[in-house]
Design goal:
The structure holds two protein chains of two kinds. By secondary structure, chain A is of the alpha+beta class. By secondary structure, chain B is an alpha+beta fold. Classes of the chains: A alpha+beta, B alpha+beta.
């Protein structure tokens, strides 16, 4: 099939950027979306033009590196898949496809479709860990954990940090990401000692990075390639309220 | 994962006959990685670690025989910079992407270990590469990577190809009499559960005979029809539901209705930089951990042991051994302004400029695909003398063409993915020759290394422990010249060497 692409080109952070029109001819429906971009790039390089910069790595939906807004939807038209898992059979011959980077103040564009997501790293730095040094391996069953908590923590831990939640949010909030990381640890015994301070510090860092606030649109959940639920935001808010109202100064 | 009793759950896994492997759904490695990442960010917050994200190591700096730092390219600004230290640790992974198509992430490459090799680190057993039998086959020339499906699928799926090429006929229209369940035919006792290397080799064989299926004729059917008939769709759904979904997402075909197509793909590289028991390479102060070294897996890696190695090397071994090195070594005060760093920076910068200056007519990926295809055919899951010798010849020619005819666009001092790839492929083009040398010198079949000249009558690997029970550690001489061979004999004090048996 033949497609018309409108791709966001931006030479660097200070460039204004613009959509550039490309034609993608003889696209196979079995191609992945990124393979379609590969082919377009090969043609650009053969013509001596700069290839479209986009990020990718594992190309099987688990590394969180890829991610572009396709026709207004982060990671494209399908639910619960990453950009690399979108295949061209999702489109029809003659379609126009608009491809943009994640748009958020906290994710500045580096080039074309590549954004700087190091703000997420700094949110993790603010508390997304358990403060135990790795020593020798502990006995496997020293800490029993009930299956329901383990499963709920695991659902949160499947977050790959891609940033689609931010890109989807009208406020560019990072609440789904932050709450998933907070809940992953806060639901497990190992995460209890810093449970409340962790939530406070990570949300403070989120604010400092100039992500927006959550106003319950739940667009994040709809865009999340790992189907992470907004319930985790509610869960994190409970921890925050608990800290603010009941137990200020309870720990640390 | 947890069982109902709140204890950790176990399962059996690749090559083990007991359930003793801990796991985290289908994403054990991913969860271990996230755990390591979180622990790392804690150290960053504590100012014990400084991260330089988006930097690529392009060379090792050795001063007076010791590894004292690295030269990197800042991938955002394109500037070439140095970092000095008392020791260097490489945790840069394996080289399956020498085949272009593999199950590795696209960014995986041999550059860090290869450049260290060129500075004096011995490279051990580079020909030991693992090919996984159950991957989703390529769908066209544009294919960029291959996705691994769990090998557990072979428990219930039956593998077959048509007895003779059938063109575009749909699999369900091919009658039983025209199907060749070749694994069941060749290995009546093991059938579809034949070992990985045999299943992979036989699949390539039937495809090379022209009997492969799917759009690129590189695939064999893995058919669940009989299992669904026998056990019911619900049981199959419980066992493989998530895998069937992944498959359908990628291929657009429903494996409950149409047989899956599978094909082998490079998955892991057992070879790597030679290290001692302290994980130090032949260059003092250069430590190598994880898949980047050669140490733990011999000629064939078993399930879950790559994750074990990553954890053991990083968490439990290196923290002790590197301290020992630092305590016992006298260091001259050296920083990034030392002339050794300036010299290497200039070499690295000149190399980038040279790639840009070629201004030829072929893209980097086009060269990489040609190299990958050649390695897959000649130095992949089966090898022979004539093929390896021919491959070495062709690699040399391809490398010459590369430096004259590659087209790399853009500028050096910019965010430039074309330049990044170009440097990596240039290194693969040198490294591939070393793989062939190693495969040629090892005149036996063992583990994942199958030399066609050395097989039993049943077509299984024929080892020669008397002459080849050693690690081949290669020393770099110059590009295009044979490397220097060093032998580290394998000494077994408590266990007698034996052949593994599938019977």
């Amino acid at each position: 099939m033949n497609l018309v692409l409108h791709v966001w080109r931006q030479a660097g952070p200070s460039d204004h950027g613009r959509f550039v029109r490309y034609e993608a001819k003889d696209v196979s429906p079995d191609m992945s979306f990124l393979e379609m971009l590969d082919v377009v790039n090969e043609e650009l390089i053969e013509k001596g033009e700069d290839a479209v910069a986009f990020e990718h790595d594992c190309r099987e939906g688990i590394c969180g590196t890829c991610g572009v807004v396709i026709n207004g939807s982060p990671h494209g038209p399908q639910r619960a898949v990453t950009t690399c898992q979108v295949h061209m059979r999702s489109f029809r011959d003659g379609d126009a496809i608009w491809i943009e980077p994640w748009r958020a103040k906290a994710f500045p564009v580096i080039k074309d479709l590549v954004v700087d997501r190091s703000a997420f790293d700094r949110i993790i730095e603010a508390g997304g860990y358990v403060s135990v040094r790795t020593g020798s391996a502990p006995d496997a069953n020293a800490i029993p954990i009930a299956k329901p908590s383990a499963e709920m923590a695991f659902d949160a831990a499947t977050c790959i940090g891609c940033g689609a939640c931010v890109a989807a949010c009208p406020n560019a909030s990072a609440m789904l990401f932050t709450s998933a990381k907070v809940s992953h640890l806060g639901l497990l015994p190992q995460g209890q000692p810093e449970r409340y301070s962790r939530a406070v510090r990570m949300v403070a860092q989120m604010d400092a990075e100039e992500f927006g606030s959550c106003t319950n649109h739940a667009e994040c959940q709809a865009a999340c390639p790992k189907d992470i639920s907004v319930d985790y935001i509610a869960r994190m808010n409970r921890d925050l309220i608990y800290t603010a109202v009941v137990s200020t100064g309870l720990e640390e | 994962m947890r069982g109902a009793g709140r204890a950790l759950a176990n399962r059996s896994f690749g090559g083990a006959q007991v359930s003793r492997t801990f796991y985290a759904r289908g994403q054990t490695g991913q969860q271990l990685l996230l755990g390591a990442y979180q622990a790392l960010q804690r150290q960053v917050a504590a100012r014990k670690v400084q991260l330089f994200a988006r930097s690529e190591m392009l060379d090792l700096v050795v001063v007076e025989g010791k590894a004292r730092g690295i030269v990197v390219r800042d991938l955002v600004s394109g500037k070439v910079e140095s970092h000095s230290g008392h020791a260097v640790v490489l945790a840069t992974g394996g080289y399956s992407n020498v085949y272009f198509l593999s199950t590795n992430a696209k960014g995986c490459n041999v550059t860090a270990t290869w450049r260290a090799h060129k500075r004096g680190a011995a490279f051990a057993n580079p020909c030991f590469t693992q090919i996984h039998p159950t991957c989703i086959p390529p769908s066209g020339d544009y294919q960029s990577k291959l996705t691994l499906m769990s090998e557990s699928l072979r428990n219930d799926g039956r593998i077959w190809v048509p007895k003779s090429p059938v063109g575009s006929r749909a699999p369900n229209e091919i009658p039983e009499a025209e199907r060749d369940y070749y694994l069941e035919r060749l290995y009546p006792s093991f059938g579809n559960l034949s070992p990985r290397d045999i299943a992979s080799r036989r699949a390539k064989e039937v495809c090379d005979e022209g009997r492969g299926v799917g759009p690129t004729s590189t695939g064999v059917y893995l058919d669940f029809r009989d299992a669904i008939h026998r056990l019911g769709r619900k049981v199959i759904e419980e066992r493989y539901g998530n895998l069937f979904e992944i498959y359908q997402q990628i291929t657009g075909e429903d494996p409950y209705e149409v047989p899956m197509r599978i094909y082998p793909a490079p998955h892991y590289t057992m070879g790597g930089l030679w290290v001692d028991y302290n994980l130090m390479s032949t260059i003092p102060g250069l430590f190598v951990i994880g898949e980047a070294n050669f140490s733990d897996h011999g000629a064939n890696r078993l399930g879950a042991s790559a994750l074990m190695q990553g954890l053991a090397d990083g968490y439990f071994v290196l923290p002790y051994t590197i301290g020992d090195y630092l305590a016992q070594t006298d260091f001259d005060a050296i920083d990034e302004v030392h002339s050794a760093f300036r010299g290497v920076e200039q070499e690295v910068g000149a190399r980038v400029e040279k790639l840009l200056a070629a201004n030829g007519s072929r893209t980097v990926d086009s060269f990489h695909r040609t190299l990958g295809r050649l390695m897959w055919d000649r130095c992949g899951m089966s090898r022979n003398r004539a093929g390896l010798e021919d491959a070495m010849q062709q690699i040399g020619e391809l490398r010459d063409e590369y430096w004259n005819n590659v087209r790399v666009t853009g500028r050096a001092e910019d965010f430039n993915q074309s330049v990044e790839k170009a440097g990596r492929v240039a290194d693969f083009l040198e490294f591939a020759e070393l793989m062939c040398h190693d495969a040629l010198a090892r005149e036996e079949s063992c583990g994942a290394h199958f030399r066609e000249e050395y097989q039993t009558q049943e077509g299984e690997a024929k080892r020669d422990d008397e002459h080849y029970a050693y690690v081949a550690a290669w020393e770099f001489t110059e590009v295009g010249r044979p490397p220097r061979f060093h032998k580290e004999p394998m000494v077994f004090e408590y266990v007698a060497l034996a052949q593994r048996s599938y019977k």
